[in-house]
Amino acid sequence: MARSSLPNPRDRRPGERRPAGRPSLLWWILGAIVLVAIAQSLFYLPSGRTVSYSEFKAMVRAGQVAEVHIRPDTITGSVKGGDPQGEFTTTRVEDPKLVEELEEAKVRFTGETPSRWPEILGWVLPFLFLLALWIFFMRRIGGPEGGVMSFARSRAKVYAEDDVKITFQDVAGVDEAAQELREIVDFLKNPKKFTNLGGRIPKGVLLVGPPGTGKTLLAKAVAGEAGVPFFSLSGSEFVEMFVGVGAARVRDLFQQAEHKSPCIVFIDELDALGKVRVQSPMGSHEEREQTLNQLLAEMDGFDSRKAIIIMGATNRPEVLDPALLRPGRFDRQVLVDKPDIRGREAILRIHARQVKLAADVDLTVIAARTPGFAGADLANLVNEAALLAARRDKTEVDRRDFDEAIDRLIAGLEKKRVMNEQERRIVAYHEAGHAIVASVLPNLDPVHKISIVQRGFAALGYTMQLPTEDRYLMTRTELHHRLAVLFGGRTAEEIALGEISSGAQNDIERATDMARAMVTELGMSEALGLVNYEGARRGGLFLETPMGRERGAHAEHTAQRIDTEIRSILDQAHGLATRILNEHRDELEAVTARLLEKEVIEGEELRAMLAEMRRGSAPGPNAPSA
Ligand code: ADP
Ligand code: ZN
Ligand code: MG
User: Given Cys at both, which of 268, 271, 417, 488 links 434, Cβ 3.0 to 4.6 Å?
Assistant: First the structure.
């Protein structure tokens, strides 16, 4: 469980889709239809008072009517004398004698052909409806239809957020990432200071981490802190676009960015856009590729002294096209990890500012109860608790609401595999085992950090050792010690729990590789001597191998001896780890307990803790010889 920190590809949260964009064409058309309908009804609004038909006839016969206007369904008119009240309307009745009577009474009358409006509408409405439907589906399909292209082009416009209110105050639990990004903020605030010295500023910064850990938030915070405009695009938006639009958007984006520099260009979900280019027989990735190529061209094209920082975010860095990660592109990566217990508390504090907390709510306790939660989960938790309180007509959010919200969210997260208590214990013992073996043996890289904060599925915890100097050579003893450290995890499980888990798979794999190299390439096994048994495996001098000298093609019995020798080296390392951990059993327990409580132990803290314990115990030989 000491694997590198890349999050797992399957870790993408299902509900995470891009937000709805600006109103689509469909809505414009529907709006137009409604307007026409309203205009229609206004057009037909009767004027003046309404009279019955018989009343109207009586008025005609009495000679009161001056003028009438005969429409298909209604008759409007005015009485003599220009009285403003004299306008009237009546519903027309089938009456063939009307004209005769009007002439007799000397009324001026005009007629009107039936309005063509209903007819036109009857024809236009379904047409508009069909057109809207068609456009809607074309959008979905993203077909390269010329006629609609002009509509789609308008989406090529990108808007900047000029006044970002988010700052680092709104982000917590990702201190290391924030620290790294402060440098970018400094640069954006005062680009002259840096460029005058001829320094090259990073062009692209890639934020890498599991979903919901605050990558988008951090990117905005950088813009907010530096007070520069924030342009953003999401990789997934391009997937459903017409061919050419994505590239046009990218072009537009960089053009605008150049005018607004210093600024930040943020490309969210970079993986949706920057997947490794594959040759597809369907050619269906054309759009994505065009867009990606445009992006690469723009990134190469702009002057690195222009204060434009391109930030990207992804939770699956392993699928990215390597072209994106070359120098001058996203060459700097910042890890945005799930928060530890202190980070969780800080994040809860940020989000709890918006709700009224009851006195019995202890955010420290809540942080302890939510291992594996990312920032977004915690924001969600506070919100859920507030909703529960509101439903119960409370004026404050109390502990019960939080307890219930936690239970609900954990049930939801269980599907995403959050470690349970038992698993946490195993992982804690495992990582403590690595750390203690590493701290006991001499000449090893010091432990930098131990963590049981889960990252994706692959790594349940990790113990990070950082070298203090560059090493070119390693002695056999050092290699043995490294093997012992690798086995420290599994061995701790054996000793403390009497049961082993699948968590050591990666350790065993690495140890085996190392032992194999010692035997077959480094000549470190007496039984097999100074022979390179791997031949062309590493593609070195023997690149053009003669037949029969291909990788690992040795005689049957040699293969057996190699395996036996590897086995013996590994057994020896396991024995060493077992001896150390038995001797330092109390330390194993103490470190494990601290890990379960705090989830993360920094190297300094670990050394202080162990030094303290070792001073207390009898002055025994703490560093056994290998
Ligand atoms: P990501 O981009 O990594 O998937 P977001 O930045 O979109 O995550 O996070 C979603 C929301 O979750 C944020 O708007 C914020 O409310 C909350 N959140 C996530 N991480 C943090 C954090 N580290 N500190 C504070 N709030 C966070
Ligand atoms: Zn391990
Ligand atoms: Mg995001």
Answer: 488
Ligand 1 pocket member 485 (CB < 6 A): no
Q: Which ligand is nearest to the CA of 434?
A: 2
Phi, psi of 134 (to 5 degrees): -60, -45
Report the number of distinct structural domains present in the chain: 4
Do 306 and 207 share a domain, yes or no? yes
Structure pTM?
A: 0.56
Categorize the per-residue pLDDT at 329 as very low, low, confident or very high, splitting at 50, 70 and 90: confident
Domain with residue 587: its CATH number is 1.20.58.760
E strand spans, 125-170: 160-161
Report the DSSP beta bridge partners of residue 409: none
Partners of residue 464 on adjacent β-strands: 449
Question: Could you say which of 63, 83, 114 is where a domain stops?
Answer: 114
Ligand 1 pocket member 215 (CB < 6 A): yes
Give the residue, by CA position, lying nearest to ligand 1 atom 14.
217
What's the CA-to-centroid distance between 485 and ligand 2, angstroms?
A: 9
Q: What is the pLDDT of residues 147-171, one digit of tens each?
A: 444 444 445 556 777 788 899 999 9
Asked if 526 and 509 count as a contact pair (C-beta separation under 8 A), the reply is no
Q: Tell me the Cα Rg of the chain.
A: 38
Distance between Cα 174 and ligand 2 center (Å): 24
Give the residue whose CA is nearest to atom 27 of ligand 1. Answer: 375
* C-alpha 211 – ligand 3 centre gap (Å): 7
Known active-site residue 526? no
Do 101 and 250 fall into the same domain? no
Residue 335 pLDDT > 70: yes
Distance 606 CA to ligand 2 centre (A): 17
Question: What are the residues whose beta carbons fall under 8 Å from the beta carbon of 523, sequence distance 6 or more?
Answer: 529, 530, 531, 532
Give tens-digit pLDDT for 309-318: 999 999 888 8
Which residue in 298, 345, 384, 431 is the catalytic one? 431
The reply to whether 206 and 313 lie within a common domain is yes
Cis-peptide, bond into residue 262, ω within 30° of zero: yes
Range of the domain at 427: 421-616
89 pocket-lining for ligand 1 (C-beta < 6 Å): no
pLDDT digits (tens, 9 = 90+) for 493-510: 999 999 888 888 888 988
* Whether residue 431 sits in one domain with residue 350: no
Residue 9 has pLDDT above 80, yes or no: no
Cβ of 219 below 6 Å from ligand 1: no
Does some domain include residue 57? yes
Which residue, of 295, 312, 335, is where some domain finishes?
335
